Amino acid sequence: MLLSIQDLKVAFRMGKGVLAEAVKGVSFDVPANTTVALVGESGSGKSVTAMSVLNLLPENAVRSGRILWEGRDLLQADLGTLQAMRGKDVACVFQDPMSSLNPVFNVGKQLCEPLMKHLKLSKAQAMVRAEELLNEVGIPEPKRRLGSYPHEMSGGQQQRVMIATALACEPQLLIADEPTTALDVTIQRQILELLARLKEQHKMSVLFISHDLGLVGEIADSVVVMRHGQIREQGLVRDIFEAPKDDYTRALLACRPSLEGNPARLMVIDDHIAGRNVQGDAKAKDPDAPVVLQVRSLAKSFWLRSGLFGKREFKAVQDVNFQLRKGHTLGVVGESGSGKTTMGLTLLRLHEPTGGEVIFDGKNLLKLSSAERQAMRRRIQIVFQNPYASLNPRFTIGQTLVEPMAIHGIGQDLAEREQRARSLLEKVGLDGRAFGKYPHEFSGGQRQRVAIARCLTLNPEVLVLDEAVSALDVSVQAQVLNLLKDLQDEFGLSYVFISHDLAVVRFISDEVLVMKDGQVVEQASAARILAAPQQDYTKRLLAAVPRGYRAAA
């Protein structure tokens, strides 16, 4: 057995002798040349379990049990032994490559470091091997890319560099901690196929950590399902998908949006465990509802430096046309770099447009004065992708919600604004205690609820949602998507929903706009786009959606 974790317990010292238990007696094995998936929601203990193998945990962590590496207990190993293993025997690929790669060093230097440290290669030998590694993970022009810095590469290329760095010393075990969560579906598919190919090529094992059972069904040999620091179920991937024994496993499988069917609501964990069927069929929208937003020939260009004194035009958005009706949702899909986010920001003039019209309430938003734009901005709001970055860490949640009302003169006084803020927190599923807390005291899903509540303080008519659920666990994602549908039904909101996840877009959207290289390549109803896509690009996006074990079998 390559790795055997036996009765692992991990707690964190919180001061005054208080221990917070994160992992509570976890046991599982990782055989040689096998992919084992650790699956669960945020806070389930899966990453803490994996990072315990090489003790990549904070100093306040307390571990007990046994972690046997080829029969040797790593809990008894000294720091020197663990440092010798890190990168050589066991390597890690993390979720966010931008925070894992050193922004000061170029790619070549970061690839050479483990080669020179563990394999004692000379600098010249290491550079030759680094070029081979970049070629192996599918990065074009590998020799030129050795001189690139992380910020000069796309998210998918950065993750490939991380994988190349991890594989530099041909480890026996690769720990992949949510390596595809932040990537669009086509890049995600490429990374999964790359990991599967490299696993076979190098005869290594993979410990793959994810919150998405549909995703791991395509790559894993066996699955370990965790919740609240404990294992709820483990077994072969076939058994987990075809006959899950635990209610929590069945709930995880059920709460992911599907490309088939169009339920009114998504099942969430508590619904499934309690045996409540809340799905039903989605209600048809009024096809003749009034148009609230009309976009004509919208364009946005950026000017990039070319040579010493020259400039060249980069057309990020070109000739985008659509109309959005009251109470309807327009889904905007495409890969990273397709222009979908730039289009959304240009609608709000967070990017100044190059051309076109955005007609709202009879006025062209792109021609408004500063004062008019400020008044209109109250009626069109945006929810960003990252709930950790979009809230002011120095403001309480109450301050975050009250401030926009004070700026726009909503409410008679502070007491009325605070009452409205508390009411909106309840509306998005947070109790009154949230009012006085700070953002760091909440999970990602709760922060996104706060961000939605902040938008609602201004009584908007249109919400632009820019990858608003892509950073969330599938179970939390289901809760937020249900919330968005409820708010739409109650307030008649119209959404521009930007996403790379076609299953999510299928659930929430009435019409879909597919973008590639800044242009709209296909536009139709959500049902028609998914049932009969016309463009090869749309077909490729659909083919990349993870479909779990059965579709892969």
What report would you give on this structure?
By secondary structure, the protein is of the alpha/beta class. Helices cover 36% and strands 25% of the residues. It is built from 22 helices and 20 strands. A 6-stranded mixed beta sheet has the order 6-7-8-3-9-10. It has a 6-stranded mixed beta sheet with strand order 16-17-18-13-19-20, with helices on both faces. Strands 2-1-4-5 form a 4-stranded antiparallel beta sheet. Helix 7 packs parallel to helix 8 (185-202). The longest helix is centred in the middle third of the chain and has 18 residues, at 185-202. The model has no long low-confidence stretch (mean pLDDT 88).
Low-confidence stretches: none
| Strand line-up across the major sheet | 6-7-8-3-9-10
Helix content: 25-40%
Query: Beta-sheet strand percentage?
Result: 25-35%
Number of strands: 20
Q: Please count the helical segments.
A: 22
Question: What is the radius of gyration?
Answer: 25 Å
Judged by helices, strands and strand pairing, the structural class is alpha/beta
- Major sheet details: 6 strands, mixed
Mean pLDDT, to the nearest integer, reads 88
Described by the principal axes of the CA atoms, the overall outline is globular
The CA-CA distance between the termini, in Å, is 27 Å
Task: Please specify the SSE layout and strand pairing.
Layout: E1 3-13, E2 19-30, E3 35-39, H1 46-51, E4 61-69, E5 72-73, H2 79-85, E6 90-93, H3 97-100, H4 107-118, H5 123-136, H6 142-145, H7 155-167, E7 173-177, H8 185-202, E8 205-210, H9 213-216, E9 222-227, E10 230-236, H10 237-242, H11 247-254, H12 269-274, E11 291-306, E12 310-325, E13 329-333, H13 340-347, E14 355-360, E15 363-364, H14 370-377, E16 380-383, H15 397-407, H16 414-427, H17 444-456, E17 462-466, H18 474-491, E18 494-499, H19 502-508, E19 511-516, E20 519-525, H20 526-531, H21 536-543, H22 548-552
Parallel strand pairs: 3-8, 3-9, 6-7, 7-8, 13-18, 13-19, 16-17, 17-18
Antiparallel strand pairs: 1-2, 1-4, 4-5, 9-10, 11-12, 11-14, 14-15, 19-20
Helix pairs in contact: 4-5, 5-7, 7-8, 15-16, 15-17, 16-17
